[in-house]
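thread: overnight batch results

M.L. [08:02]
morning all. the overnight job finished for the chain we discussed friday. pasting input first so we're all looking at the same thing
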Amino acid sequence: MNVRRLIPRSALAGAVALGAVTLSACGGTSGAADKGSDGKLDVVASFYPMQYLAEQIGGAHVAVDTLTKPGVEPHDLELKPRQIGELGEADVVLYLKGIQPAVDDAIAQAGVKNTVDAATLTTLEKHGAEVGHDHGSEEAGHDHGSEAGGDPHIWLDPVKYAEVAKGVGAALEKADPDHAADYRKNTDALVKKLGDLDTAFETGLKNTATKTFVTTHSAFGYLAERYGLDQEGISGVDPESEPSPARIKEIQDIAKKDKVTTVFFETLASDKTAKTLAGDTGLKTDVLDPLEGITDKSKGDDYIEVMQSNLAALQKALGAK
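M.L. [08:03]
and the structure it wrote out:
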């Protein structure tokens, strides 16, 4: 079985005040970066949620490259020597510690002056057994910070993602003071879009027949908590792992008790587990996208559109009124 490892090899940085930025000054005390030959700030993002922030906030002043190409499962990413070399040449590196161990290791060694860890820009929370997510199982290969006490899937909560956006904006302002006003304007525009998205989720999920949803990838703890839902993750939290007979029985009981209709799976992994469970429980299957990458299979072209698709899927599955 191909088991994922999402665990940070070192503890996640503790949460800091809203808008604070982690900047490692390996090349001097000034945060200002030396721009590329095209006059743009070269930003390397670890995976799509970080790429989206860099592009939305940086606008025309940045050239963004991502270490995780479309269609690549980010947790299993292995970096090529060329990518590691390019990482060291970046003006700004934007990543989320705890999601991609290979990236965490490479960034620690790269010595980039302006390194932004999104995990420090909001408050991380635990999402453990109460949401069907075993944080302590090495065998499951999916321990979201039992040492650090934080689930890193912060981008799936529009409110927390907006907090991260503010921190990223501050980091770009510091790295490129000449365009600080534009970064600030773009940050404000993105925060407003995320606020509208939050409102849509809040109103769209306020009145539903059930509050429980089942997912093969227990990435939605923040989203569930934000909107008063209950996430039930299949054991072995790897979306492609086989649920145990005991867990299938447990899901059957939960589905009956809480009027669950749907087992959700994700776009970047096989739907085998979801179909197996659905077949055994008489449930339907649908996509709930953890937004770790955008591909031609994604139900939307960017973060906002895919999140809107997620909202529609949840409304349908939960029986929104």
